[in-house]
Every structure is written in structure tokens, then in C-alpha cells.
Amino acid sequence: MTLQFMAGGGAMGRAIRSHPWADSAFGAPAQWPAPLKTLVGVMLNAQQPMFIAWGPEQRIIYNDNYAEILGGHHPALMQPLLDVWSEIRGDIQPILERAYAGEPIAMNDLELQMQRNGRAEETHFSFFYAPVRGDGGDVLGVFCACTETTQEVLARRERVTELDRLREMFAASPSFVA
């Protein structure tokens, strides 16, 4: 039986629907807290990369677009987030701890050295971490929507370098301008 909140979502939707939840720390999906059900439904049908880190072990559920960001770390369904991203643990652990402490976190350009394509790569992300609270006000997990901005940052850097080069050429040849 598929619960309506798990509808859609492409490959990750299918993986989430077929996961043996009853044997997991989350338990049967019908018994999940309402915020988790709502966020899973939103995430599965969103075009933006999203994940949910849930519970004290911060196990992740994510959508197809986030699977692309995971690259070689995918599949990682129900793995602890900091174990999945071991190479950037030092960068994201303090952010995750703040979110689990109840602080919403937004960053427009977080630079990370991630293992992708068989090597360490400079990457850039814009994202927010939103604490997800239960009925009693306790933070049960963190919801993240993110956008990779690596190509935009590198293109901007390249434009600045080219402008600097042109300025130097211009300054070195005043007779050309006259």
C-alpha cells in the first residue's frame, strides 16, 4: 500500500516507497509525525534539490535532484548525513548542529571541497536548513533546500580575471588609446 504523501518523485520516490520502513528507526510511514509526512510529499515532487535529516542519527531522505548532488555518494537513503558527506563533515557539522538546536540557517555561497568525479572539487551552494519541530516544540529533524551555484561562481571569477587582464593591457598601452 502506498501512502498518498509518498506519491511521485521519480527514482527516489520509488526507492522511498519500497524501503523496508517497518524495520527502520523511522518505523512504518503511516505512523510518522505529520511534519515528516508533509515534507516528504513536498520534497518528492519538488524540482529543487532537497533532503530531510531526521532523528538523533540525522538519517537522510532526499529527492532525485539531490541524488545528482550526491554523485558517487548515492544511494544514501537512511544513512547518517555526516557519514555520507565525511569529506565535508567539518564544514557542515556546525551548521547542522545549529539547525538541530532550533536555528534556521541560510547561506548564499558556501564553498565546499567535495569528492566528485573521482577527485576533490571546489563546489558552491546556496541553501537553507530549517529546523522541523514536533508537536511539543522539540526539533525532530532538519529540512534543506539547496541550489548548486558552482558554475555561476566559477564563471563570475573568470569574468573578473578577464576584466583585470584587460585593465592591465589598457594601462600598459596609453598610446593605443590616444
Commentary on this structure:
The protein has 178 residues and is α+β, with helices and mostly antiparallel strands. Helices cover 39% and strands 26% of the residues. The protein has seven helices and five strands; from the N terminus they run ααββαααβββαα. A five-stranded antiparallel β-sheet has the order 2-1-5-4-3, sandwiched between helices. β1 and β2 form a beta hairpin.
Distance between the termini: 79 Å
Q: Which class do the helix and strand fractions yield?
A: alpha+beta
Q: What's the gyration radius in Å? A: 21 Å
Low-confidence stretches: none
Q: What is the mean pLDDT?
A: 92
Question: What is the strand arrangement across the widest sheet?
Answer: 2-1-5-4-3
Shape: elongated
- Beta-strand content: 25-35%
Describe the main β-sheet briefly: 5 strands, antiparallel
Provide a count of the helices.
7
Question: SSE order, as H and E?
Answer: HHEEHHHEEEHH
Helix content: 25-40%
Number of strands: 5
